[in-house]
Request: fold
Amino acid sequence: MRKAGLFVGVILLAIFGLIFLQNQPSSGSLNGEKADMSNYYYLQDDDPAFTEVSMAESHRLYKNKMTGVILYSYEDCPFCNLAVPLLNEAAKENDYQIYYVDVYNEELMHLPRAERVAIQEQMMQDVDEILDVDENGEPELLVPLVIAVKHGKIIGSHTSLVDNFTPDDISDVMSEEQNERLKQIYADLIQSVMD
Reply:
């Protein structure tokens, strides 16, 4: 009888231990590789502070209660091209690696439609609380989108550039003051996950 009670106790302890561990933040990192950011035409850095992860992999940041800063972007986006060098500077000044998700990644685009849509819907669910909505009330992903995640929870985000930047032409660039303000926004997001 004592052995049965001891056995039940060990099993309960193991179950509670697993539940406790599942609710703890993960200190691991996402699976990715050094991002090739060479097509971001304003980025003049041969060793940028970005690790490319797939959209599916980015889900682990939220699911596994991990911590990190993630950029959702794509290289043909004019606003992304203005933002990426500033995010890179802020990351390097804080000695921090940014997770980068190319929202039009070729591998993602070539998946079977059902699989691609499932991955995109999961990502939209992960970040739903910060998404803008379109004229039909549907959530929409606007880029560049930088999100600070701490222990799986979104603690800050920034979409687009700065509020007072209204380009007359797609080739317009921000002023030095606007660049500094955006870089500070990014630095604040990075520092929020480092605390």
Confidence is low (pLDDT under 50) at residues 8-26. Helices lie at 2-22, 55-63, 78-93, 106-109, 113-126, 176-194.
